[in-house]
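Before relying on records like the one below, remember that each one covers exactly one chain. Contacts with other chains, cofactors or solvent are not represented anywhere in the record.
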Amino acid sequence: MRRTSILIASTFVLAFALSGCAAGLNAETRNIVRVTDGNEITIDENGSEIRVVNLKLVDTGDGAAVVVGTIINQGANPDQLLGFSVNGIQATLTGETNLLTNKPVSFEGEQANAKAVFYGVNPTAGTNVKISIGFAKAGFVSAEVIIRDKRDDFKNVVSGSAPVTADTATVTE
C-alpha cells in the first residue's frame, strides 16, 4: 500500500513538473504577446545616453504616418534631434528638437511637445518598417517599428494638413 501511494504521488509531481502547470500565472506560454507598445532603443554612443521609448508609427488614414513615442536624454550633455526617415523619406519635424538632460521630447499624447509626420507614404497598419533617427552628437540609429491603425489609444492622432509647396500654392492677384 505504501509503495502504491509513493508511486501515485510521484506520478502527480512528475506530471506537474513536465507540463509546466506549476508555473501558474507566470507560465512563459501565457505571457507571449505581440509587441504593439512600440520599440525601445538605447543609444550609448559618442558619450550619449539617449533612450527612445514606445516608438511606433500610426496610419492616420489620409496617406500619412505619424511618429508616436518619447525620446529622453539621460546624459550630462545636451543633444539635438535631427530627424526621422523611412526608406529614404524624411519626416516633417516640428516642435522641440533640443534634447536637454532628463527633459523628454514626446511625440503625440497629452505631453506632446514635438511632431513628426511622413506625408504621402500610404502606410499599411500591422506591418513593420525600418525607421532611422538622427542625432547631432549620438549619430544615427535604426530600428524596426510597427505601424498601428488609428483606433483605441491612437484615435486622436492626426497628421495635420500637408505642408504647402510652391507647386500647390494658390496665388491671387
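The helical segments are 2-19.
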